[in-house]
Inverse folding.
């Protein structure tokens, strides 16, 4: 009987512990990512006058297979840059009609996948084993309140069949061009 | 004289054949309609949200990436087609929405 009570209590404690550690604080800023990650996509964002660079850690890039969930340990980064503007504030474009990023980084969004991380969230919210964090360019957290990340979970839910990613799963499907 | 007139008509009509075109894609029923577009570099696609909910124009294809942001019902957005190639358009909010675009020289 005591063993049963102990087991229930221990399971409860584990659950509480997992919940306590869920959220942006367990996603570390990937220091030096611009040197060691691979930039696989640029996205112009006219409504915000920004350009987004997307990075993936090299191990995930090498292990990812078309149509399959991404490997544990995958780290994806979405880095927002201000863009060059003309005198009238319209975006300046390069020869291919693309925005030109400045070096000024305004946001660094990170999503990371680790074994069991999804267990900390209720099923209706869970994004597989992914969790999210939001940093400034210097690596300091921009937000640490888990409530600020509801939007990440909700939006990425729409891509459940792509392992909750908008861009990298597609990039792998396209043959990693 | 008739031959000259014909030649003049042909010459004046040639530039029209390569003028930039505007292609309309609608979003009613959470579908891009048409679902495939073939265009020339320099053309543009006008997306009309004639649906009752927000949509989006998001291109995740490498080399063509762009996100026009949330598009409310009753509004339009414009996607310039600056260079040749093939890419896909998706709605961030509705995974089933797909548009394939082929841009030729």
């Amino acid at each position: 009987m005591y063993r049963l009570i102990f087991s229930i209590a221990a399971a409860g404690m584990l659950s509480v512990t997992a919940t306590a550690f869920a959220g942006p604080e367990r996603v570390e800023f990937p220091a030096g990512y611009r040197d060691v990650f691979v930039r696989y996509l640029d996205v112009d964002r006219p409504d915000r006058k920004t350009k987004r660079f997307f990075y993936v850690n090299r191990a995930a890039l090498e292990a990812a297979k078309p149509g399959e969930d991404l490997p544990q340990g995958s780290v994806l980064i979405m880095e927002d840059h201000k863009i060059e503007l003309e005198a009238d504030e319209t975006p300046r474009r390069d020869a291919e009609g693309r925005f030109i990023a400045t070096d000024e980084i305004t946001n660094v969004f990170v999503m990371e996948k680790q074994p069991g991380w999804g267990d900390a969230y209720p099923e209706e919210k869970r994004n597989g084993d992914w969790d999210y964090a939001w940093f400034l360019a210097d690596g300091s957290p921009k937000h640490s309140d888990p409530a600020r990340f509801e939007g990440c979970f909700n939006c990425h839910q729409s891509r459940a069949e792509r392992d909750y990613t908008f861009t990298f799963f597609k990039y792998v499907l396209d043959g990693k061009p | 004289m008739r031959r000259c007139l014909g030649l003049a008509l042909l010459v004046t009509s040639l530039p029209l054949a390569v003028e930039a075109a505007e292609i309309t894609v609608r979003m009613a029923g959470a579908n891009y309609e048409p679902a495939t577009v073939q265009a020339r570099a320099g053309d543009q696609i006008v997306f009309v949200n004639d649906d009752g909910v927000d949509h989006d124009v998001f291109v995740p294809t490498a080399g063509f990436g762009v996100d026009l942001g949330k598009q409310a019902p009753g509004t339009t957005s414009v996607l310039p087609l600056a260079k040749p190639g093939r890419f896909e358009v998706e709605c961030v909010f509705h995974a089933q929405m797909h548009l394939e675009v082929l841009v030729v020289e």
Notes: Residues 20-104 of chain B form a domain with the Immunoglobulin-like fold (CATH 2.60.40.420). The interface with chain A takes residues 58-63, 65-69, 80, 82-83, 88, 92-95 of chain B (CB under 8 Å).
